[in-house]
């Protein structure tokens, strides 16, 4: 199984509504992106986050499914229209369990 983790840092002037829209759209990928086994995302509450405000965890069967997800049109549309306009920084890690 592949675990895909993304941490998001938003521009300082980003509204709570815009962040909520991103989180909702990301959660909504389950069922629309067939490679996703499980997905969760939410708001950070740790003081150790170095300014990263939200996290995303997605699980896939294998690396091929992760690659298909990365290229999926629905996923790419969320990145283009909701994430990129408000994104200040992100960290992505992928590992196999």
Which features does this protein show?
97 residues; alpha+beta; 4-stranded antiparallel beta sheet; 3 helices; 33% helix
The structural class is: alpha+beta
Secondary-structure element series: EHEEHHE
Low-confidence stretches: none
User: Average pLDDT value?
Assistant: 97
Distance between the termini: 5 Å
Secondary structure tally: strands: 4
| Helix proportion range | 25-40%
Short description:
Helices cover 33% and strands 33% of the residues.
Q: Can you walk through the features of this model?
A:
33% of the residues lie in helices and 33% in strands. It has helices at residues 16-27, 63-71, 73-83; strands at 2-10, 38-43, 54-60, 87-96. It is globular and about 35 Å long. The mean pLDDT is 97.
Give the SSE layout.
Blueprint: E1 2-10, H1 16-27, E2 38-43, E3 54-60, H2 63-71, H3 73-83, E4 87-96
Antiparallel strand pairs: 1-3, 1-4, 2-3
Helix pairs in contact: 1-3
